[in-house]
Design brief:
The chain is an alpha/beta fold. The chain is 35% helix and 17% strand. The protein has a 5-stranded mixed β-sheet with strand order 18-19-20-21-22, with no helix packed on it. Strands 23-27-26-24-25 form a 5-stranded parallel β-sheet. The two termini are 26 Å apart. The protein binds pyridoxal-5'-phosphate. Pyridoxal-5'-phosphate binds next to helix 3.
């Protein structure tokens, strides 16, 4: 069962609202403008719903029109206010010069203000009203500017944090101001009484889908006497306030929701909602003891919790919750895909890590005790899963997933090489963002840290190796002297059980650039090459001290030591290629092929590089500010596979390899796709451990299909592309991931 905790983004449609919509489509399908009986019945329905809305909103007077949603309501309100200001100016009146909106307002508000301000050529000054650390408006700031404001927009409650505005205090701050006042009531509907009749609010937009009505229906209240200009002109529907044949199914469904509000019994009261939120909050704190709430609960809607967990990104938490079939959102729904910091939390002045890793959990007032209890149980299970993966503090434990793990932060790669038997490990190219996480992981898994190595010194910042060593000082093996890159001066190689690390100087990117060569019992297995080779690019040679000759010579030297298929593990990976090898790079990069073909002296190398730069255009290089980025993509046919295509592939290859690339903490919580295919070979290799398995897959017979899947299809696409690029062309990604792999799709696929 899905536990849907994203009600501030949208809600499911209430059963009685669905029934009302179906009736409006199947039986009462008339056009309310028609004067025959069918039309009259539709007119009667819309009149009834409007009357109900007026009662629920306490808006007996003024306009109350049905819209497609809040965004349309906001447009209509802003257009109305701004047209009136323009008309006054055209009549020669002096008009106020400011348009104000709360800094945490939904984007629909400031974007509409800017849009209509520009379109109507008003040139007014659009300013954000600052908010305090509690998310509430700075009333002193507003009081000072209110006399010059033509329109003030403030939300009743915030969609990300749930913070409820102090509407009475805002009203007082606006006393004596000539401003029109828009209050965005979207998140308040059914949760807070706006008392429209007794307040000076001029415009209040609402969206039905935030309270169990379908998407596509909303309402706009306009105070009697407030300026009004229709956004849509045409057939004169809605008393010419909003032309276009009415969305009767939506109106009917919204009517059913309003009736539920009026009748009581469907939605929980405020005390119950608060009790539920407390239960959820306690479950969250139990699951993630370091969690911080990003908004004071006492000031927030009782249905919203916004939190961050130190060291855990919102993407990680979303993946984790989703694996447990719990839907939450990162920051606000609209910007969740981009994983940008939340501007709402930024406006509240919260620290950067909190604004960048926020998660919002919101439920609707139609929830019940059983739902909340199940939600709490799943949240606790998520916490256990992270503890079992050593991602939140837990009892020390020795887990098996040793080997090679890659971490990536903004394109920079860090590797943890760990040996299960000896419990010794090495970190290559540590990153400051990972210090805490790595320290927790090593402590929890009882590793001894044999070395922290950098592949080169950095021009602009210090390595975080010292920071990591200090964080896990009790786990460090040996206290002997180290070279500046962290290599123990007295060691020829570093041993981790059966694994051995050696080093090879490869000056070029910097004078001290070094490759670390990883050997196992079978020989050279991989090389950590830092910035000397980047997948799809030559590597960086942008430092003054790196003469092209040194760089070219280092590439040649590397080519003499590593084989064409040895995995090269880069210091940066901007295109999710994970790893490369010289055979692939030779194919992808003509210049590398020429360098490795031998015979290019310094001048030849510089000339070839200049030629390439000219051919490719400098922008190719400037994107990364590096001297030799070639970025030639190996184009291949689509790697996406629909469930039906997977079925066709299965018919040909019943023993294909199906790989779950989700992280272990997700795999533990979630189900694998159910396939009626007994011979399929299942593997679980998290994307972060892909490097570990690449050699095995590359050694498969060429016709063997490898199909990757994950939660949404992104990580599996990366895995498929990386494997294809390295030479195994029959690699695919299950498109849409488990999110689209619903039982019915599964059955359809199996039946196909
Ligand atoms: N205002 C607030 C506070 C919201 O939360 C939303 C939706 O998230 C909107 C406005 C826009 O509503 P819609 O997308 O339904 O038009």
């Amino acid at each position: 069962m899905e536990i849907y905790l994203d009600a501030n983004a949208t809600t499911p449609v209430l059963a009685q609202a669905r029934e009302a919509a179906v009736a409006a489509m199947a039986e009462e399908y008339g056009n309310p403008s028609s004067i025959h009986s069918t039309g009259l019945r539709a007119r009667s329905l819309i009149d009834d719903v409007r009357a109900r809305a007026r009662r629920v909103l306490d808006a007996p007077t003024g306009r109350l029109l049905f819209t497609s949603g809040a965004t349309e309501g906001i447009q209509t309100a802003v257009l109305s206010a701004l047209v009136s200001l323009r008309d006054r100016r055209e009549r020669g009146e002096a008009i106020p010069g400011l348009l104000l909106y709360g800094a945490t307002e939904h984007k629909a508000v400031p974007e509409s203000l800017r849009h209509w301000n520009a379109l109507l050529e008003l040139g007014l000054d659009v300013q954000a009203i600052p908010v305090g650390p509690d998310g509430r408006h700075d009333l002193a700031w507003l009081r000072e500017r209110a006399p010059q404001a033509g329109l003030v927009c403030t939300m009743a409650a915030n969609n990300e944090t749930g913070i409820v505005s102090d509407i009475d205090a805002l009203e007082q701050a606006l006393a004596g101001s000539p401003a029109l006042w828009l209050v965005d009531g979207v998140q308040a509907l059914g949760k807070l009484a706006l008392r429209l009749a007794s307040r000076r609010i001029d415009y209040a937009p609402f969206s039905g889908h935030k309270l169990y009505a379908p998407k596509g229906i909303g309402m706009l209240y306009v105070r009697e006497g407030a300026p009004f200009t229709p956004l849509l002109a045409g057939g004169g529907q809605e008393s010419a306030q909003r032309s276009g044949t009415e969305n009767m199914a939506g109106v009917a469904a919204l009517g059913a929701v309003l009736q539920a509000l009026e009748d009581g019994g469907t939605f929980a009261d405020a005390a119950t909602l608060r009790a539920w939120r407390n239960e959820l909050g306690a479950a969250l704190l139990e699951a993630f003891p370091a969690l911080v709430f990003n908004a004071p609960p006492a000031l927030a809607l009782p249905t919203t919790l916004n939190f961050s967990v130190p060291g855990l990104s919102s993407k990680l938490l979303l993946d984790l919750f989703d694996a447990a079939d719990v839907r939450v959102s990162g920051g606000s729904a609209c910007s969740a895909a981009k994983a940008q910091p939340s501007y709402v939390l930024q406006a509240m002045g919260l620290p950067e890590w909190q604004t960048a890793s926020a998660v919002r959990l919101s439920f609707g007032p139609a929830a019940d005790d059983a739902f909340i209890a199940e939600a709490c149980a799943r949240i606790r299970a998520c916490g256990r899963s992270l503890r079992d993966s050593c991602l939140v503090p837990s009892e020390p434990k020795a887990l098996p997933p040793d080997g090679l793990t890659r971490f990536i932060v903004d394109g920079a790669c860090c590797y943890l090489l760990a040996d299960a038997a000896s419990r010794r490990c090495v970190v290559v190219d540590p990153l400051p963002e990972l210090t805490e996480r790595l320290a927790g992981l090593l402590r929890c898994q009882r590793y001894t840290l044999a070395a922290v190595l950098d592949t080169h010194s950095h021009g602009d910042h210090a390595s975080s190796a010292g920071e990591l060593r200090a964080a896990v000082s009790e786990l460090i093996d040996g206290a002997g002297p180290l070279d500046p890159l962290g290599w123990p001066l007295d060691a020829r190689e570093i041993a981790l059980g059966a694994l051995r690390l050696g080093r090879l100087p490869v000056p070029g990117h910097t004078l001290d650039s070094t490759a670390y060569l990883l050997h196992d019992a079978d020989g050279l297995r991989a090389a950590f090459v830092g910035d000397t080779v980047m997948p799809g690019a030559l590597g960086r040679s942008d430092f003054a001290q790196s003469a092209p000759l040194a760089f070219g010579a280092s590439l040649l030297k590397l080519a003499q030591v590593v084989g064409p298929a040895t995995l090269l593990l880069p210091g940066h990976d901007y295109d999710d290629r994970f790893a490369s090898n010289l055979a692939t790079e030779r194919r992808a990069q003509p210049l590398l092929a020429r360098v490795l073909g031998g015979g290019l002296d310094a001048a030849g190398f510089a000339a070839a590089k200049a030629e390439l730069e000219r051919d490719l255009g400098l922008s190719t290089y400037s994107t990364l500010a590096c001297g030799a980025r070639v970025d030639v993509r190996v184009e291949t046919a689509s790697q996406d596979l629909t469930p039906a295509q997977l079925q066709a592939l299965l018919a040909q290859h019943p023993d294909l390899l199906l790989v779950d690339v989700r992280e272990p903490y997700e795999q533990r919580l979630g189900q694998a796709p159910r396939l009626d295919a007994p011979r399929v070979r299942h593997q679980a290799i998290a994307l972060s451990q892909l490097l570990q398995a690449l050699p095995e897959w590359l050694a498969l017979p060429a016709p063997t299909p490898v199909v990757f899947y994950c939660r949404s299809g992104n990580r599996s696409a990366q895995a498929a592309e990386a494997l294809r690029r390295l030479g195994h062309e029959r690699a695919w990604s299950l498109s849409g991931g488990l999110a689209l792999w619903r039982p019915e799709t599964r059955e359809a696929a199996v039946a196909a």
